[in-house]
Design goal:
single chain; eight-stranded mixed β-sheet; binds S-adenosylmethionine; binds iron/sulfur cluster; alpha/beta; 296 residues
Length: 296
């Protein structure tokens, strides 16, 4: 771990485990999604970090000869920063680490509203090449109830912009997000969104409520019923069945999942569907994570 002055807690995608996590902002500027408690503690109130502080950190790291090949811009939606500020940050990274191979960030669709494809392409030129987009669902009803502040159309617009700028996208979809009532439409419309967007990477996580589901229940009138293991697998089956992807690396290996799935879609679609069907109908013939092995 790099010895930096973080405001904790800090979250990053699993695939950035070995990257330099540069906390260019603290918290999330939206911070309203009812399932997400990641930045709700008092010290995580949204604020950009001063550029001087970031430069100081990069100087210290480079002087101590910390190797940096990849950089992840934290926290929850660093792409809310202006293009001008993002350019400054990318130029700083390049100044102290000219050999850096990849810079990435979480990105909410709304972060890109005021950024043109040309501006994004400039950021791409400066090294920012991968956006992690928490679409969570392609279903407008579910998105509204979880207060994502996004829709099928806004999510698709952002994913298309990312592609047009020459960047890659990695999308997160949350298994179980609509509960039993909206499970089918959540799966179908999430697949429809992915089919239209053709992201480079897609991962699914299981929604969980480590501090209880009171806040979540409010928009479901207290009637949200979480999916059990079988229902989660059924939802995954619906999602996979509907996915028509050309070349997307699919990962359902986050610690929250009971069943680990990995492959390239469409090539591995049938093989993955077979695994889900095994989990559903012959669970003793397949390795499933036990409850104690799961986490957020
Ligand atoms: C640290 S958040 C930042 C994502 C970014 N702000 C966005 O919305 O695109 C990363 C992801 O964690 C996942 N996440 C957050 N709360 C969760 C929960 N309670 N259960 C499961 N996954 C959760 C969501 O998929 C979210 O997009
Ligand atoms: S999921 Fe993303 S946008 Fe929603 S509150 Fe969490 S960090 Fe913010």
């Amino acid at each position: 771990m790099y010895p930096l002055d973080y405001i904790d807690p800090v979250f990053r995608p699993p695939s950035e485990a070995r990257s330099l996590i540069l906390q260019v902002t603290n918290g999330c500027s939206w911070n309203k999604c009812t399932f997400c408690e990641m930045y709700t503690q008092a010290q995580k109130r949204f604020q950009p970090k001063p550029i001087e502080e970031l430069e100081k950190q990069l100087i210290e790291l480079s002087q101590a000869q910390y190797p940096v090949r990849r950089v992840f811009l934290a926290d929850g939606d660093a792409m809310t920063l202006s293009t001008r500020r993002l350019k400054e940050i990318l130029q700083l990274i390049y100044r102290y680490y000219p050999d850096v191979q990849r810079v990435s960030s979480y990105c909410l669709p709304r972060n890109l509203k005021k950024k043109s494809i040309e501006e994004l392409a400039e950021l791409r030129q400066l090294g920012l090449s991968l956006m992690y987009v928490g679409c969570e669902s392609g279903d407008d009803e579910v998105l509204r109830r979880v207060e994502k502040g996004e829709s099928f159309e806004s999510s698709l617009g952002a994913l298309k912009k990312i592609k047009a700028a020459g960047m890659k996208s990695s999308v997160m979809i949350l298994n179980g997000l609509g509960g039993t009532e909206f499970s089918q439409q959540h799966a179908r419309n999430s697949a429809r969104l992915m089919n239209a967007a053709q992201p480079d990477y897609l991962s699914t996580l299981v929604v969980s409520f480590p501090v209880g589901d009171d806040r979540y229940q409010e928009n479901f009138n207290g009637e949200f019923v979480a999916l059990n293991q079988t229902q989660l697998f059924t939802e995954m089956q619906w999602l996979l069945e509907e996915l028509q992807l050309e070349k997307t690396i699919f990962r359902s290996d986050h610690a929250s999942n009971y069943l680990v799935l990995k492959g390239v879609l469409g090539k591995d679609k049938q093989a993955m569907l077979e695994q889900v069907k095994l989990a559903l109908h012959q669970p003793d013939r397949i390795a499933l994570r036990q409850e104690w092995q799961r986490g957020l």
